[in-house]
Amino acid sequence: LTLLAPGSLAARPPTPAPLPDTTLYSATDAELLSTSNGASCIEYGVVQGDAAASSAYIQWTPNKWHDGRLKIGDGDSTGCRVGTPELYEFEHVCLTIRGGQNGAACGPPSFVFAGGAPYRTSNAIVFEGDRALTSEFREICVPVAELQTAEWNLERRHYTGYFRFQKCGQSGPQPQYEVQELTLLAPGSLAARPPTDAGPAPLPDTTLYSATDAELLSAADATADVSAVDCCAADASATNSGACPRHDAVL
Questions:
Q1: In whole angstroms, what is the distance from residue 70 CA to residue 45 CA?
Q2: d(CA 233, CA 155)
């Protein structure tokens, strides 16, 4: 319990605004898609689909010399995403992605984040198991902590950074990556999302008979003289005839 002097509360520095989620690329991102591939944030990739119809995506098929890269920067020299927050401030990297081996003999596909000064590379995130790429777009969220290394917390110090979708070997086919959206999620943002699939509704309790059951004890049912009917008859004739009104429950 603290007593504050006059003006003390007003003199406190304001509480920083919470970090917002930041979408680095979206299929409807007119700014990103308005520039030519050679001068934009996309390196060694191409935009496919229709942004107006929200069906656009970046397609990367690396070659033996280059990974596919999505560039983020902090100044006019990069031309991409001026003022992008540092990656280490976020909790998850979420990609809406599809793709796969594409005939590549090595793999599986993976991506890293690279940048900083001096230039460094994060731990690789491998698309396998629950993160395996498929032929359908789906969201894969990766904790930023998995990208961090003992030497690098992903701070770039105002230099260019790259999401690099990695090549596979020096010969033969290369994996393919198609990204529809890439978003950085603030701490707690993923956990706060409502469940996407609640599953089937739970089976309700079913009362087959109750002393207060008006339907069972009604005049209509009474015409069948329920008391005289064997509702467990082996031939189920009583239930099929309607004499036992609770014949519709499946055990």
A1: 9
A2: 76
113 close to 162: Cβ distance less than 8 angstroms: yes
Structure tokens at 235: 């031939």
Q: Across-strand partners of 25?
A: 182
Tokens coding 35: 């520039």
CB hemisphere CA count around 151 (13 angstroms): 9
DSSP string, 187-210: TTTTTTSPPS---SPPPPP--S--
- DSSP secondary structure letter of residue 73: -
d(CA 182, CA 140): 10
Q: What is the distance between the alpha carbons of residues 26 and 51, in angstroms, rounded to a whole number?
A: 9
The model's pTM is 0.69
Residue 44 phi, psi (nearest 5)? 60, 35
How many other CB atoms sit within 10 Å of the CB of residue 51? 17
Structure tokens at 169: 């070997």
- DSSP string across 157-170: SSS-EEEEE---SS
**pLDDT average, residue stretch 25-39:** 60
pLDDT exceeds 70 at position 40: no
